[in-house]
Each structure stands twice: as C-alpha cells, then as structure tokens.
Amino acid sequence: MAPQQRKPHVCRNPDLIRGVGKYSRSKMYHKRGLWAIKAKNGGAFPKHEKQTVAAAPTEKPPKFYPADDVKKPLVNKRKARPTKLRASITPGTVLIILAGRFKGKRVVFLKQLTSGLLLVTGPFKINGVPLRRVNQSYVIATSTKVDISGVNVEKFDDKYFGKKVEKKKKKGEGEFFEAEKAEKNTLPQDKKDDQKSVDAALIQSIEAVPDLKSYLGARFSLKAGMKPHELVF
Amino acid sequence: MPFKRYVEIGRIALVNYGKDYGKLVVIVDVIDQNRALVDAPDMVRGQMNFKRLTLTDIKIDIKRVPNKKTLIAAMEAADVKSKWENSSWGRKLIVQKKRASLNDFDRFKVMLAKIKKAGVVRQELAKLKKETA
C-alpha cells in the first residue's frame, strides 16, 4: 500500500455554543478511552518517572546596568517581497509606458525582477526602447500578447541595471578628469550584445503577427472622444 | 405625424434603463397607465415602467401573458432575432458594442484600414477628376 495519508483528526467534542461542548466529562472519559488505558496498566493510570532536568549553567550578574530603562523595539515579522504583479501582466504582454522619456511607447514585458520592477524591451530595433526596468504603476497592460518562448531572460536581474561602482583612483587632477569623461558615455559592448540576443527571437515572433511591428513602433496617445475609463485595453 | 408604434400585447421593446439595459423584451400585459408586464426568453417575467422601454417596430402574435414555452415558440415563429439584427437600429447597436469592445491593437488596425480606404477613395476621385477636367 502507498504511504497511508492520515485523515485530519475531527474534534471528539464539538462545540454546541462557544464554551459549551456536546459531551459531558464522564462521556468524554469514555470517548477518550481512558478506561482502556487504565485497564491495560492494571487499574491505575500509567506514570512516568520524572526526568531530571540538567542544571542550567549559573548566569553571572551583568557588569553594567543602564541608568534608564532601555526600550526593546517591537518585533517585526514582515518579509520583503516583490510588488504583487497585476493579473493582466504576463510574460509577453504588450505594455504602454505612461511616464519618462519613453512615454506612450508600446513595449514587450519580459519578467518581474526581485525588486518588483518590470523588465521590459522595445524591442530596440522597432521602437528604440532598450532592455529597461519600469515600475508597474506607470504602465497600462494591454490584452495583446507576444510569444516569448524563444527568449532567455535568466541572466537579467537588478544588479545588471545598477550604477557601476568605480574603484577609487589616486587623486591626480587635470588628466584624471578628462580620461574619466571619455569612458563614461558609451554603452559597453556586452550590453549591446545582450539586447541583440533578446530581441532576435522576439522580433521573429512579432513579425509573425500582421501589423504588430508597426503597432509596437507607434506611440499611444489619447485622441478626441476617447474616454480612458471606457476604453478596453 | 400619427403614432406608428403602439403599446400592445406582443410589442417588442428595448430596455433603456436598469439592470436589463439593452435587452429586447416582449410586452405581455399592461398593468396600469405606467407599467407593463414584460417577458423575455432569458429573464424572469416582471413589471417595468414604460419610461424604461423604447418601443420597436417588431410585433409578435401572442395571447395575454403566455407561458415561457409559448412565448419562445412565438418569438421563433416571428423570427424576432434576425429581424432585429437586420434592422438599421439593431445594426447600429451591434456596431456600437463592437467598437466599445475593441482592444488597443484592434483600434490601431482599424486606423490603418481607415487610412488605406481613404487613400484608395482619393485615388479614384483624382482619376475621375482628371477625366472630366
């Protein structure tokens, strides 16, 4: 037989009302089978020898008592979790970005990062939006989905998008500043390659749907007569 | 000038207010000056104020307060559904519903189609203008 699943134990003494059980003390005695336990043990209830508790090591009195009472901070059992993702946002959903330099752009959602932000890409070739993080609150989720199965987004996390920490160089003015500036502005080649690899599979699945490419290339805007609360996205 | 759509038993009306908004119902009895007993295949028979109803041109042949089975049979016989969907009023409502349910992507595709159609029309017009000029 397969390992026996224990049925969750039903209460032996159900409540008639809160605080009043259905069965009396004598009935419960019989129900619990205490008479059988006694009979098995020869008329008396089985007793165990008291287990000697090992003596706890004697604590030394503290060297220092604070002058005023120190308050203990309240216990906080909350766990940090990424923001709850709206049910309408699933990998491959087309989102409309509402704020920032890409406002109005229609963009493909890839995954939610551990910080709660959404990882999103244009794709870059179609509308100029690179692999980017976006907050869920600044986004409208449309019901259009793109097939995202060919894309691998495992390697992207919040650290990938963080600001690069520079090693402290020894101070030598003049030349120091010029050299710094020349390096900062260009995007490192490996980020460009990441963008290309993510977009390659995406663009294929986008081109399979007619008009989807031009849809993603166009910006969203409210026109006359459009009522946002009545629009179906 | 005279009235053409009368409140009578068998008149089909459109509900324009309330929980059953947008439904087609049959007037099966008149209660008093303001209210009618109203029934439809998918609702429980109940009273409705005339102000909540807009009369249509369609009328079916029933006796006062028929039972549900008879009512449905009479509606099938008169073919209310197709008469309504082919009438200009019914068609307008269907288009309104479709437009309201359009997706953002659908609206984009409609925009492209409109532009294309306008382009074709303008080309034809230009051709015709050239011929007559």
Automatic annotation (TrEMBL), chain A:
<dbReference type="InterPro" id="IPR005568">
    <property type="entry name" value="Ribosomal_uL6_N"/>
</dbReference>
<dbReference type="InterPro" id="IPR049633">
    <property type="entry name" value="Ribosomal_eL6_CS"/>
</dbReference>
<dbReference type="Pfam" id="PF01159">
    <property type="entry name" value="Ribosomal_L6e"/>
</dbReference>
<dbReference type="InterPro" id="IPR008991">
    <property type="entry name" value="Translation_prot_SH3-like_sf"/>
</dbReference>
<dbReference type="InterPro" id="IPR000915">
    <property type="entry name" value="60S_ribosomal_eL6"/>
</dbReference>
<dbReference type="GO" id="GO:0003723">
    <property type="term" value="F:RNA binding"/>
</dbReference>
<dbReference type="GO" id="GO:0022625">
    <property type="term" value="C:cytosolic large ribosomal subunit"/>
</dbReference>
<feature type="domain" description="Large ribosomal subunit protein uL6 N-terminal">
    <location>
        <begin position="3"/>
        <end position="60"/>
    </location>
</feature>
<protein>
    <recommendedName>
        <fullName>60S ribosomal protein L6</fullName>
    </recommendedName>
</protein>
<dbReference type="Pfam" id="PF03868">
    <property type="entry name" value="Ribosomal_L6e_N"/>
</dbReference>
<keyword id="KW-0689">Ribosomal protein</keyword>
<dbReference type="InterPro" id="IPR041997">
    <property type="entry name" value="Ribosomal_eL6_KOW"/>
</dbReference>
<dbReference type="GO" id="GO:0002181">
    <property type="term" value="P:cytoplasmic translation"/>
</dbReference>
<keyword id="KW-0687">Ribonucleoprotein</keyword>
<comment type="similarity">
    <text>Belongs to the eukaryotic ribosomal protein eL6 family.</text>
</comment>
<dbReference type="InterPro" id="IPR014722">
    <property type="entry name" value="Rib_uL2_dom2"/>
</dbReference>
<dbReference type="GO" id="GO:0003735">
    <property type="term" value="F:structural constituent of ribosome"/>
</dbReference>
TrEMBL record, chain B:
<dbReference type="GO" id="GO:0042273">
    <property type="term" value="P:ribosomal large subunit biogenesis"/>
</dbReference>
<dbReference type="GO" id="GO:0006412">
    <property type="term" value="P:translation"/>
</dbReference>
<keyword id="KW-0689">Ribosomal protein</keyword>
<dbReference type="InterPro" id="IPR002784">
    <property type="entry name" value="Ribosomal_eL14_dom"/>
</dbReference>
<dbReference type="InterPro" id="IPR039660">
    <property type="entry name" value="Ribosomal_eL14"/>
</dbReference>
<dbReference type="GO" id="GO:0003735">
    <property type="term" value="F:structural constituent of ribosome"/>
</dbReference>
<dbReference type="GO" id="GO:0022625">
    <property type="term" value="C:cytosolic large ribosomal subunit"/>
</dbReference>
<keyword id="KW-0687">Ribonucleoprotein</keyword>
<protein>
    <submittedName>
        <fullName>Ribosomal protein L14</fullName>
    </submittedName>
</protein>
<dbReference type="GO" id="GO:0003729">
    <property type="term" value="F:mRNA binding"/>
</dbReference>
<feature type="domain" description="Large ribosomal subunit protein eL14">
    <location>
        <begin position="45"/>
        <end position="117"/>
    </location>
</feature>
<dbReference type="Pfam" id="PF01929">
    <property type="entry name" value="Ribosomal_L14e"/>
</dbReference>
<comment type="similarity">
    <text>Belongs to the eukaryotic ribosomal protein eL14 family.</text>
</comment>
<dbReference type="InterPro" id="IPR008991">
    <property type="entry name" value="Translation_prot_SH3-like_sf"/>
</dbReference>
<dbReference type="InterPro" id="IPR014722">
    <property type="entry name" value="Rib_uL2_dom2"/>
</dbReference>
<dbReference type="GO" id="GO:0003723">
    <property type="term" value="F:RNA binding"/>
</dbReference>
